[in-house]
Amino acid sequence: FMQAFESEHKAALYFYKRTRILDQKWGTLSAVKYDDPKYNFPVSLRAFGNYSMQISDANHFFTQVVGGAASYLVSDFRDMMTNRLIHSLSDYLAEKQLSYAEVDAQRVEIAADMTETLQDDFNGLGFELIDFRIEGTDFDEDTMTRINKIADVHADVHAANSAGISYRELQQLDAMQDAAKNEAGAAGVFMGMGAGNALSQTMNEPFSTPQGSGDRGARLRELQTYHAEGLITDEEYAAKKRLILEEL
Questions:
Q1: I need a labelling partner for 91 at 20 to 30 A (CA). Which of 63, 177, 193, 201 fits?
Q2: Of the candidates 130, 126, 7, the residue with the CA atom closest to the CA atom of residue 67
Q3: Cα(179)–Cα(66) distance, rounded to whole angstroms?
Q4: CA dihedral in degrees (155, 158, 160, 163; nearest 10)?
Q5: Comparing C-alpha atoms, which of 155, 202, 148 is closest to residue 175?
Q6: What pLDDT digit, counting tens, does each position of 21-54 carry?
Q7: What's the whole-model pTM score?
Q8: Residue 32 forms beta bridges with which residues?
């Protein structure tokens, strides 16, 4: 008889793990998009890392998260964590105005700030977030294309400075070399003439103003490079060299 007894007053027992759950992986399911504040182009960033967590408030956990569910698994928390992370990280990057080149250098600082931001969300759910880390970042193909273009320009500027010429002069040299290789059509000839005129103007500019001995040495080396590559004739080389030496 007692086995068939039914009552409107029912109770359920729940058990939960109080220890820390370590080394949980996280990753952005979709790219975090924001505008690079330094270079003014759109960036799509992916990030991944790990964290640890534990239930800090059982009452909040059962009333705000578990509800009437029969169980709540670590994987359930991981899904919730990932969904909340993208929005918080996007807001953070937009607010901090970090350029793409600064993200990796400040991963520790970003992780610390993100821990504080995320913890505010999870406190009300009865969780404590511990040791949140960013292990790596990655950019999508379009962003990498833009980044590589910027890197190429920086490398060219450095090379031009090392050679003692300006970036504009380096571009003119590249145009002349490309034109010299393209001898098959009139378009190549036209480009060569235009680049030659631009180079002539560029070469004439520094000789009109006296320079220091160090500048004269750089100009002589630059002139010798033009001559060695066949960009100026022997007569032009001798005339320009004489003008530089007359400044001594």
A1: 63
A2: 126
A3: 72
A4: -130
A5: 202
A6: 999 999 888 888 889 988 888 999 999 999 999 9
A7: 0.57
A8: 45
